[in-house]
Design a protein that fits this description.
heterotrimer, A alpha/beta (330), B mainly alpha (285), C alpha/beta (345), B: mainly alpha, MetI-like fold, C: alpha/beta, Rossmann fold, 2 domains
């Protein structure tokens, strides 16, 4: 995706603009081999918009998200946030950057993402102590404020994680992320580890917070039903590449890419299942011109081995794109 | 913070009351600590006073543990030695801990050259039979209490390094470490304020076991003449002094110091689990 | 809960009650559980975590926690009461007549043993009774059967995979290995405890397809334990809904899904995002599971979370009301049946 194409799509300056991001990990034991976790990813998020990111294990969404949160450095590409290229500060030093507070994350497993030796209060207060200029009293007040916002009763604030339920821990994680008033909130499967009834509560909470605070969100999940509810647009990833992107409702109702079609059809209750043959290909040294889905794809043809498809517009909606040579708009 | 302190005490009481073994260990430890602190003031005889006439007397009402070859009261010497032995043990363990845990955490968390350097150091120390290494250090630097502490601390270093490194390796990928980065923590802060508190519980068990070994180590060095010098009272020396008399039937000269040694090491081993429970908030109800 | 069938059920649980003795009190984990599974039937056991689903299956197989005590009831399998059976009898049944697969496939497999060997272990254990299987080529025979078992669960290249270790395989493949392990001796009943939690949607679909296909092929009954009502409705013939140690409703899957009669089932449905729902439609189940250590639990354990609950619900246990094959235990069921259709059991 060239930058000129991106620019023409937006009437307002996007909050986050990712340009041709790559992440390659060296493979231990093999000198010139690399694992392509993220390949040529470009996307943007407008202020106040919620973008969903779906894909299955191994598709690279966790890596992508950690690149955006500046926990790791990208191999190539730019991450433009509020006009500044974040990649210029290495990840190791980003913790002390002035932009650190602007991008925060809610993690998948609430139990794993809370330090077992810190009380809820200490966990929520820490980013305030490190990233804001608030005094102790102000911090205390802010912790109370954000705890109330996420529906966490104040008597629970002095408890340790093992004394809290799953839903309560999830709230602590959300409160911690919101404490420093981020502009972009990344949610990495925030309800995957929660029970169904608690999940509903947390989802409604997230929706309410989005509206009240005008947050931009990047919502990562493998649960398509959940993603559809909380996002304006969605991007589908497969083996490190974005294969389809567009307005959520449209992508789910009229998926264009063969992988998206298979994914949507696997949701229980969605009728006949489109099965993909075989297993996911290896992300190590993938051949550059072959489409990543080739071999499992029901549509696959010779052209697919000679030229990796790029994202192109489907039908009339400029916002809906899919990377396939053989798009058949339904 | 006072609210936290009071819960700490009630947690301590809970841990002690929960398990009878812990209670026994706590009582014994308290006894040892008291003896170490006030021992020299409550003993009936001067531990250094020799009286040739009352040499090698068996245990009696006047001398509970009997007397040694120089007529000194063994009971007094054993009690006074508690301070020496415990002092050596505590100092060397604290030193080992203070150096070993940060090194291990850095090795496990930062990897790279830190890991290579620290593991080389640890491997080098462990390549030697530890007691022989301690002997070598004391022989080279001289028999002072300070050098005994140093030698003991050095040979115990690898254990702390290993425990801390293992913890850091496991926790390195934990969600809360990543979250800590997002909250603005630099790597050093994560090591100090996040990883270190979590490495405490297993390190505590190590501390307790080490106390036992440190005492045995000091006693062993003294036994072979490389440790504390006479006429100072130290359990190892006392055992050494009595060793030659076992064959001739004066069993009490070695037995009581040996029993004291055994009791002390036993106490510290029992204490290991209790210490870990004390420091681990997950065991709080 | 009755089922219109002339055949005796394969597994019949009657009035099973179980409690845990813990330091903080007695936990009344199960109370008066009734459950029936016919030969070749696929039953889904659904409920929130903590509702007692796993406890029930562990109790049936005799692998409950040491603190568990069955206080009443029976679980009759092929004429034998599993609750009263002794350990050697149960050990022979486990893996051979009744098999179980668990939630995290990677942790349920032995990490230091190749998967083929693990399958052979099961076969060897239960081959002890089969005279014609012993002999010098038992090893060779077992190896071939292990390869065959892997082939049957659609693992490609089984001759090579049979020597692989669990860490070399993906989550979905490990789950297939676990299925192969469980089905190696052709059991009559398979209990699957949350087999797809944590797996991707497409892998989930593939695993569920595999289990149901094998079940149908071999006329094997299956009990699916899950908290995902939609998944259960998609794959099971019948659903049994549990709440806090009680069975509250059971019936044909499609009927239960479209016309739930117990308020709890309805709430479970309405709190699950589906293809057609919006965020505002989602109605989470209010409150939390009751603390099962309380001595004074209300007769209906859902009473405190239910809008329709009244005094009677708290005092008296509602009888089971059956309408065809759809049974519900509630004083105020939704879509109430007419008096002529009601019959107490």
């Amino acid at each position: 995706m060239s930058t000129t194409v991106l620019a023409s799509l937006n009437t307002t300056t996007p909050l986050l603009q990712v340009e041709r991001l790559h992440k390659r990990f060296p493979v231990t034991g093999r000198r010139d081999s690399f694992l392509h976790a993220v390949e040529d990813v470009s996307l943007e998020i407008a202020p106040g918009e919620s973008l969903g990111l779906v894909g299955e294990s191994g598709c690279g969404k966790s890596t992508l998200v950690r690149l955006l949160a500046r926990l790791h450095d990208a191999s190539e590409g730019r991450i433009v946030f509020g006009g500044e290229d974040l990649c210029e500060t290495p990840a190791l030093r980003f913790a002390r950057s002035t932009k650190r507070h602007a991008i925060q994350m809610v993690f998948q497993d609430p139990t794993d993402s809370l330090n077992p030796r810190y009380t809820a209060r200490q966990t929520i207060a820490e980013p305030l102590a490190l990233l804001s200029s608030m005094g102790v009293a102000e911090q205390r007040a802010r912790v109370q404020e954000v705890a109330a916002q996420v529906g966490l009763p104040s008597e629970l604030l002095d408890r340790f994680p093992h004394q809290l339920s799953g839903g309560q821990k999830a709230r602590v994680g959300i409160a911690r992320a919101l404490a420093v008033q981020p502009e972009l909130l990344i949610l990495d499967e925030p309800t995957a580890a929660l029970d169904v009834s608690v999940q509903a509560v947390v989802l409604q909470l997230l929706q309410r917070l989005r509206r009240e605070l005008g947050l931009s969100c990047l919502f990562v999940s493998h649960d398509l039903n959940v993603v559809r509810l909380l996002t304006d647009r969605v991007a589908v990833m497969y083996l490190g590449r974005i294969v389809e992107v567009g307005p959520s409702d449209q992508v789910f109702r009229h998926p264009q890419h063969p992988y998206t079609r298979a994914l949507v059809s696997s949701i229980p209750g969605q009728g006949p299942r489109i099965k993909l043959a075989g297993e996911v290909a290896s992300p190590i040294d993938p051949p550059a011109q072959v489409c990543r889905l080739y071999g499992r794809c029901p549509v696959g043809q010779d052209l697919c081995t000679r030229q990796t498809p790029l994202l192109r517009t489907v039908g009339n909606d400029a916002r809906h794109k899919a990377a396939c040579h053989f798009l058949q708009p339904t | 913070m006072s609210a936290q302190r009071s819960t700490w005490w009630s947690h301590a009481r809970h841990v002690i009351g929960d398990n009878p073994v812990t209670l026994v260990a706590a009582v014994l430890f308290a006894l040892l600590a008291v003896l170490a602190l006030i021992g020299p003031f409550i003993v009936p005889y001067d531990p250094l006073a020799s009286k040739a006439e009352s040499a090698l007397q068996p245990p009696s009402a006047a001398h509970w543990f009997g007397t040694d070859a120089l007529g000194r009261d063994i009971f007094s010497r054993v009690v006074v030695a508690t301070r020496m032995d415990l002092g050596i043990a505590v100092s060397s363990v604290v030193l080992s801990f203070a150096v070993g845990v940060p090194l291990g955490l850095a090795a496990g968390f930062l990897g790279g050259w830190w890991e290579r350097g620290v593991t080389r150091l640890s491997d080098t120390i462990m390549a030697f039979p530890l007691f022989v290494l301690a002997m070598g250090i004391v022989a080279a630097l001289g028999n002072t209490v300070g050098n005994i502490v140093l030698a003991t601390a050095l040979i115990n270093l690898p254990f702390y390094i290993r425990v801390a490194r293992a913890e850091a390796n496991i926790r390195r990928e934990a969600g809360w470490v990543e979250a800590a980065r997002l909250s603005g923590n630099s790597d050093m802060r994560i090591l100090a304020f996040h990883l270190f508190p979590n490495a405490l519980p297993p390190a505590m068990v190590q501390v307790s076991l080490n106390m036992g070994w440190a005492i045995l180590n000091a006693a062993g060095l003294s036994f072979i003449g490389l440790g504390v010098r006479p006429p100072q009272a130290e359990w190892g020396i006392l055992v050494a002094e009595g060793a030659q008399f076992i064959v001739s039937g004066e069993w009490w000269v070695s037995l009581f110091p040996g029993a004291a040694l055994m009791l002390a090491v036993f106490t510290f081993n029992l204490l290991g689990d209790a210490l870990r429970d004390l420091f681990d908030p997950r065991r709080r109800t | 809960m009755t089922q219109a069938s002339t055949q005796p059920p394969l597994l019949e649980v009657n009035g099973l009650s179980l409690e845990f003795r813990t330091r903080s009190g007695v936990v009344h984990a199960l109370e008066g559980i009734n459950l029936r599974i016919q030969r070749g039937e696929i039953v889904g056991l659904v409920g929130e975590s903590g509702s007692g689903k796993s406890v029930l299956s562990y109790a049936m197989l005799g692998i409950s926690d040491a603190a568990a005590r069955v206080t009443s009831g029976s679980a009759v399998f092929g004429g034998l009461d599993l609750i009263k059976a002794d350990e050697p009898t149960l050990a022979n049944i486990r893996g051979r007549e009744i098999s179980m697969i668990f939630q995290s496939p990677r942790t349920a497999l032995n990490p230091i043993r190749p998967v083929g060997r693990q399958i052979e272990d099961v076969l060897r254990r239960h081959a002890a009774g089969d005279v014609h299987q012993r002999g010098p080529d038992l090893g060779q025979n077992l190896r071939q059967r292990a390869v065959q078992a892997l082939r049957e669960v659609a693992i490609s290249d089984p001759e090579r995979r049979v020597k692989a270790y669990p860490f070399e395989m993906s989550g979905g493949m490990c789950q297939r290995v676990m299925i192969a392990l469980a089905l190696a001796c052709r059991p009559a009943l398979l209990i699957a405890d949350e087999p797809t939690t944590g797996l991707d949607v497409t892998t989930q679909a593939a695993v569920m397809d595999l289990i149901t296909d094998l079940a149908r092929q071999r006329q094997m009954a299956a009990l699916f334990i899950t908290h995902d009502l939609a998944l259960a409705a998609d794959y099971c013939d019948r659903l049994v809904v549990m709440h806090a140690g009680h069975v509250v409703e059971s019936g044909p899957a499609s009927e239960l899904f479209s016309r739930p009669r117990h308020p709890y089932t309805a709430r479970l449905l309405s709190s699950t995002p589906g293809p057609g729902t919006t965020l505002e439609d989602l109605k989470p189940v209010p409150g939390n599971l009751p603390d099962l250590r309380r001595a004074e639990l209300p007769a209906c354990r859902f009473a405190e979370r239910c809008e329709q609950a009244d005094d009677r619900c708290r005092r008296e246990v509602a009888p089971v009301v059956v309408q065809g094959t759809h049974a519900v235990a509630c004083w105020h069921p939704l879509h109430a049946a007419t008096p002529s259709e009601e019959s107490a059991v």
